Amino acid sequence: MSKALLNDSPAAGLQTDCEGSSRRRSWGLLVTAGVGGTLVALYAVATPFVTPALRKVCLPFVPATSTQIQNVLKMLENRSGSLVDIGSGDGRIVIAAAKKGFKAVGYELNPWLVWYSRYRAWRDGVHQNAKFYISDLWKVSFSHYMNVVVFGVPQMMPQLEKKLEEELECDTRIIACRFPFPSWIPDHTTGEGIDTVWAYDLKHSRGCERKNLEVTPETEF
Question: Of 9, 40, 122, 197, which has the most beta carbons under 10 Å away?
């Protein structure tokens, strides 16, 4: 029997159909796996950005402008000691402060931004003085920081004001960007619009100086 007749036989046609069906199933599995892997990757990347928006108080990531950074640094002139940036985002404030000699720390809930901040600090050669941690700001005590920077939203400022007042020492300076605290009166203000920065010396807001003056000196015998 010739080769042509073999190819035209029903068995040969059935074999060809089976091979074609197998190839289609293989391609279908590959496409499904590719789409599934892409969706998983997108979910892993997007979740840290979307999850904060589902919280009662949303603290979205909005990068600091170069003017805001300069205004923050201006409020830190003649200051020293440790510094914390609450909601540090991509680490710009922490890195800028570290370059000025501060031991700076950033707390951020989004792990992707924390990892990126660590990379930027390493790239800029300040990773020894710039540390970043994945944490919810409401679960962290800021009691050992002398300088606090906050990029907040109006909904969180009253609660955060109370938390900081309870935790911080009298000689702490708190710097708020974009939105001021509701009750405290700022000691210094610079910038305008979204670049406005307010500085609060806690000793004035808490009345530490007044309390010190009211203490009666001990009488010497």
Answer: 197
Beta strands of 65-172 (E only): which ranges?
A: 82-86, 103-108, 130-134, 147-151
For residue 33, what pLDDT band results from cuts at 50, 70 and 90? Answer: very low
Per-residue pLDDT at 66 exceeds 80: yes
Q: Tell me the mean pLDDT in the region 59-66.
A: 78
* Helices 66-75 and 92-99, axial angle in degrees (round to 10): 50
Q: Say how far residue 9 (Cα) sits from the centre of its chain.
A: 69
Distance CA 134, CA 141 (A): 14
Residue 107's SS3 state is strand
In angstroms, the CA 22 to CA 28 distance is: 10
What are the structure tokens assigned to 40, written together? 């998983």
Please list, in sequence order, all residues whose beta carbon lies within 8 angstroms of the beta carbon of residue 93, skipping any fewer than 6 positions away. Answer: 64, 69, 72, 85, 104, 106, 149, 151
